[in-house]
Amino acid sequence: MGADRVFAYGAAAGLLGDLVLGDPRRGHPVAAFGRAAGAVERVLWRDHRGRGALHTLVCAGGAVALGAAAARAARGSRGASVALTAATTFCVVGGTSLAREARAIGRALDAGDVAAARARLPHLCGRDPQSLDADGIARAVVESVAENTSDAVVGALVWGAVAGVPGLVGFRAVNTLDAMVGHKSPRHRRFGWASARLDDVAGWPGARLTAVLAAVCGDRPRDALRAWRADAALHPSPNAGPVEASFAGALGVRLGGTLSYGGRVEHRPVLNGAGRPVATGDIDRAVRLSRRVGVAALGVAVSGRLLADRVLTGHRTTTKGRRA
Asked: Rounded distance, CA 126 to CA 141, Å?
């Protein structure tokens, strides 16, 4: 069994495991990585970009090295390699937990319990919930579902297809570091710069694939593509922009506008201005679209890995024939 099939079987099993089980409530490896990264930060922190770059190198590089060592140890057994890929995929993707949190907030809003929805919102995103009414909460949830479809599912599958287990682990490590230190708080404005920039680079291909698949899998493909072309570049994030704009067009809603993070108010451009305001029912629609995008991304990642391995195998065969 080649590396292409190992990834295909392992990634499919891992994504299925996430769909059925969701994230483990205790002992999650990503949480363990976060604690380790926090400990390294306490040792290395200085208000300096160089120290932040060292923190990123130690944490992300260490995670990739561990993933590579595990993959090398399992290489002698096809079953072990598939099992390792499946377990790693299961640990790094988070589509089911994303859907559960989003739908829990949607149920609270449907019941008219805005206070309960505000209490759950920090589980999903970093917005200031007290500044949001019911419609603002619904919009924040839809935007978070869109962005995290790329960060928690598609991006990981893309890097898994490119680099196997080290790619899966590395992408999740970089994404987690960005969430921890990659924001513009006084403590992390300089220290988190390297993590934020690396996350932008690592997230670039997954974000574009997510935007394409949202258009393909949604009910309004032309509107999704139009919103992506017209509005994505207006967003301050190079990766959230395409994803949120495409989701907005696919769902026929309007995203963006004024929001608050950590007491800091931001006035973001409107995405898909021709759409209607987000309603509570759009949360479930966004979750269903996210599910379809995740499954489609698995198909694209597996197909891309199979094709790349066949091309490389053919190239090696041709090269050997010429030498002979």
From this structure: 11
